[in-house]
TrEMBL record:
Domain of life according to the entry: Bacteria
Annotated metabolic or biological route of this protein: Amino-acid biosynthesis; L-methionine biosynthesis via de novo pathway; L-homocysteine from O-succinyl-L-homoserine: step 1/1
Role of this protein: Catalyzes the formation of L-homocysteine from O-succinyl-L-homoserine (OSHS) and hydrogen sulfide.
Record's protein name: O-succinylhomoserine sulfhydrylase
Ranges in a coiled coil: none
Organism: Dinoroseobacter shibae (strain DSM 16493 / NCIMB 14021 / DFL 12)
Gene: metZ
Length: 392
């Protein structure tokens, strides 16, 4: 059979039918599974077959369908589904690292990712070196012969720095280090992270994969060996597994993932182009705007600029708050990738924990707004944003 295209995989890959032949994927809302005999229980604990399950923390048919579907789309051998994006980030790192190991990480990270690298791993004796992720010389200087892993967000939150996956992977692989990427902003649709050299690709499924703001979830994609022999034992024993109900929501959402994300990215591109140069804006940051510092890399690495833009509003916090409070369609919240457009003020919310110096170092100004573009009509969104900018 020829390899199917992404849209086909998003609808069909990983489907497992029960004896009833249901069309829509079934939710196996069960934590346990019955064995016909004591001998069968013993055998399953020695080695479970592909259609044999033991306990939902270890695996569940609905969860397995989601894992197989996302692995098919991402192009990795396997995937392990987790209770949230953070369970996936923590699971990918903590499962493979031990005291004395060295990790190099980009500094521009989602706050909870920074917490894991800066506060959790170091507490267990892992040494972490932070670098400016866009500076290849800094990666080269920080990666050592004993470096076990590198970690970065392929597009950083919220300032949308683009990291050269291929170049960093080449440096990491030269010393045998694993390349672990948080790929949320690239989405499974625009990602080619595996081909570009990422070994382990992590998503918060809470974002575009659900895409409708309902469930937390996450996933770790990688080789079968990494997923089943490294990540799974850690996650199934420490409790980070995805619930079957949430897996079912994610499975159904994946059917429309390509359509949704492409529509959102198209609107995001149009809004970025139209708003750039507006009198109330210091700047518009969007990876596929020619003014983006890594425009050429962003074009080479991603088929679209993504669904999120950053607007630096004139007048600092006061200007940003006047803008937020004047929005009618766009909601003030902190999810992203949702069907509803969402605006966030990182300096006072998601990145409030950082010192002003740390925020300045990451380019998070007091006027910065992260705008996640939803599925509303592009013209309506543009008018909403322009009206709010007039209020600045
Ligand atoms: C949201 C997010 C996470 C965490 O995901 P949760 O599902 O909220 O745990 C991790 N990394 C990035 C880049 C994110 O945007």
């Amino acid at each position: 059979m020829t390899e199917k295209q992404t849209r086909t995989k998003l609808v069909h890959a990983g489907t497992r039918r029960s004896q009833y032949g249901e069309v829509a994927e079934a939710i196996f809302l069960t934590q346990g599974f019955v064995y016909d005999t004591a001998e069968a229980a013993e055998a399953r604990f020695i080695e479970a077959g592909a259609d044999e399950f033991i306990y939902a923390r270890y695996g569940n048919p609905t969860v397995r369908m989601f894992e197989d579907r996302i692995a098919a789309v991402e192009g990795t051998e396997d995937a392990f589904a987790t209770a949230s994006g953070m369970a996936a980030v923590n699971g990918a790192l903590a499962s493979m690292l031990r005291a004395g190991d060295h990790v190099v990480s980009a500094r521009a990270l989602f706050g909870s990712c920074l917490y894991i690298l800066e506060e959790v791993l170091t507490r267990y004796g892992v040494e972490v070196t932070f670098v400016d992720g866009t500076d290849l010389a800094a990666w080269r200087a920080a990666i050592r012969p004993d470096t076990k892993a590198v970690f970065f967000e392929t597009i950083s939150n919220p300032t949308l720095e683009v990291i050269d996956i291929e170049a960093v992977a080449k440096l990491a692989h030269a010393v045998g280090a694993l390349v672990i990427v948080d790929n949320v902003f690239a989405t499974p649709i625009f990602s080619r992270a595996k081909d570009q050299g990422a070994d382990v690709i992590v998503y918060s499924a809470t974002k575009h994969i659900d895409g409708q703001g309902r469930c937390l979830g996450g996933v770790i994609c990688g080789t079968r060996d990494f997923v089943r022999k490294v990540a799974e034992p850690y996650l199934k024993h420490t409790g980070g597994s995805l619930s079957p109900f949430n897996a079912w929501v994610m499975l159904k959402s994946m059917e429309t993932l390509d359509l949704r994300v492409r529509a959102q990215a198209e609107t995001a591109q149009a809004l970025a182009e139209t708003l750039e140069g507006h009198a109330a804006l210091e700047k518009v940051i969007f990876p596929h705007l020619p003014s983006h510092p890594q425009y050429d890399l962003a074009r080479a690495q991603m088929a679209a600029g993504g669904t999120v833009l950053a607007l630096d509003i004139k007048g600092g916090k006061a200007g940003a708050f006047r803008f937020l409070n004047a929005l009618e369609i766009v909601t003030i919240s902190n999810n992203l990738g949702d069907a509803k457009s969402i605006a966030t003020h990182p300096a006072t919310t998601t990145h409030q924990r950082l010192t002003p110096e740390q925020r300045a170092g990451l380019g998070i100004t007091d006027g910065l707004i992260r705008l996640s573009v939803g599925l509303e009509d592009a013209g309506d969104l543009l008018r909403d944003l322009q009206t709010a900018l007039a209020a600045v």
